[in-house]
Write a structure and sequence with these properties.
α1 crosses α7. The strands form 4 sheets. Strands 3-2-1-4-5-6-11 form a 7-stranded parallel sheet, with helices on both faces. Strands 7-10 form a two-stranded parallel ribbon. The protein has a two-stranded parallel sheet with strand order 8-13. The protein contains 10 helices and 13 strands. It has one domain: 3-Layer(aba) Sandwich (Rossmann fold). By secondary structure, the protein is α/β, with parallel strands linked by helices. β5, α5 and β6 form a beta-alpha-beta unit. It binds NADPH dihydro-nicotinamide-adenine-dinucleotide phosphate and guanosine-5'-diphosphate-rhamnose. InterPro entries: GDP_Man_deHydtase, NAD(P)-bd_dom, NAD(P)-bd_dom_sf.
Length: 368
């Protein structure tokens, strides 16, 4: 397990001392998130040394990367290294850039929950918008002071299109519908500006929803598959949801991280939409997932107005022709395969949970 004690501190020996000769070096913010974990696996497979910035939390927050963690005391084998930093702390970003000297920076960190951004708008803007600006400025000043080049990836979102009707491409106007989406628009334009003003190799990936068994449990797909597994094994009976008529273009996170990397391997920096070009409603996700386990969602789902948003994004469906043409990227996992992958994993998790509940080790009511 990646212990907080093993996360390097600024007074620790230079983090790049054990740099693997000739390996490219990537710095990933948001490494403990869904995309951070898939991107790190992908980059390690490509031979990169990967440095992740993690924020301090009262509980371990490294569950998604524990399986690829190697204790740094075993320095010859450890190609993923973790450091404390925060997008709200500019000095930490600049310090780690100076120590790590990355070739590529992937800015994935965010308060990424759209509904929560209505509850904590100021914090969301600070991390998502100003956080991106802090990191861009740290990259710019590090490059100027050290005569180095860094390629920068910004995690943009289809939420920026908001109420603009589909299909949405790179030329579709933004009309954000939440503090989160407005903050992502700011981060998008900061990135474009740093590219134009300073010649920085900076790309915006405008990614449509992408899911996986590692998706956070309060996003709708995972909330459904997690509840479904528990319903199937008898740990839960009801699932409370909000607007199930919303439509999303859902892909597999493992496919999308490849597109992030491809954007940084081109001759010139640019912005790209990444999507499956298929859209499904939340209700269709319920149909396919419950149907797969031989259940009817109508027997279990109740609509709870608490999950409705003050302003909703009704319909997202990407046009990814530019990424297909220029990056030669295309998604490998389709909608039904994605749903089944998530249901299979969450059913196994529910079965393990059931063993613990039956043995009296945990209380079924205490689970999400
Ligand atoms: P997650 O919510 O799973 O991960 C977010 C990451 O950001 C976590 O590692 C989190 O740390 C970290 N983080 C949050 N706040 C801070 C902070 N103040 N300083 C440093 N790190 C912080 O998101 P995803 O992996 O799903 O998404 C990755 C990025 O892509 C995000 O920017 C998201 O907005 C964007 N995006 C995601 C899409 C999707 O469908 N998944 C689609 C389009 C864009 P911790 O683990 O401690 O919480
Ligand atoms: P989204 O994802 O807002 O698209 O943002 P989410 O899964 O939260 O919502 C998708 C749609 O489902 C509806 N919905 C519910 N959503 C949640 N979370 N919980 C519910 O109970 C529920 N019931 C219905 C929502 O109203 C919405 O229409 C995700 C995040 O990963 C962002 O960071 C990213 O930028 C975008 O995808 C692209």
């Amino acid at each position: 397990m990646a212990s907080q004690d093993n996360v390097s501190r600024s007074e620790a020996p230079n983090a790049s001392d054990s740099r693997i000769a000739l390996a490219k070096v990537a710095l990933v913010t948001g490494i403990t998130g869904q995309d951070g974990s898939y991107l790190t696996e992908f980059l390690l497979q490509k031979g990169y040394e990967v440095h992740g910035l993690i924020r301090r939390s009262s509980n371990y927050n490294t569950q998604r990367i524990n399986h690829i963690y190697v204790d740094p005391h075993n320095a010859n084998k450890a190609r993923m290294k973790l450091h404390y930093a925060d997008l709200s702390d500019a000095s930490s970003l600049r310090r780690w850039l100076d120590v790590i000297k990355p070739d590529e920076v992937y800015n994935l960190a965010a308060q990424s929950h759209v509904a929560v951004s209505f509850e904590i708008p100021d914090y969301t803007a600070d991390v998502v918008a100003t956080g991106a600006l802090r990191l861009l400025e740290a990259v710019r000043s590090h490059m100027a002071d050290n005569g180095r080049n860094i390629k920068y990836y910004q995690a943009g979102s289809s939420e920026m299109f908001g109420s603009t009707p589909p299909p949405q491409s790179e030329t579709t106007p933004f009309h954000p519908r939440s503090p989160y989406a407005a903050s992502k628009c700011a981060a998008h334009w900061y990135t474009v500006n740093y590219r134009e003003a300073y010649g920085l190799y900076a790309c915006n990936g405008i990614l449509f929803n992408h899911e996986s068994p590692r998706r956070g449990e309060n996003f709708v797909t995972r909330k459904i598959t997690r509840a479904l597994g528990r319903i199937k094994v008898g740990l839960q009976t009801k699932l409370f949801l909000g607007n199930i008529q919303a439509s999303r273009d859902w892909g597999f996170a493992g496919d999308y991280v490849e597109a992030m990397w491809l954007m940084l391997q081109q001759e010139k920096p640019d912005d790209y939409v990444v999507a499956t070009e298929e859209s499904h409603t939340v209700e269709q996700f319920l149909e396919v997932s419950f149907g797969y386990l031989g259940l009817s969602w109508k027997d279990h789902v109740e609509i709870d107005k608490r999950y409705f948003r003050p302003t909703e994004v009704d319909n997202l469906k990407g046009d990814a022709s530019k990424a297909k043409e220029a990056l030669k990227w295309k998604p490998k996992v389709g909608f039904e395969q994605l749903v089944k992958m998530m249901v299979d994993e969450d059913l196994e998790m529910a079965k393990r949970e059931k063993v613990l509940v039956d043995a009296g080790y945990i209380d079924a009511q205490q689970q999400p």
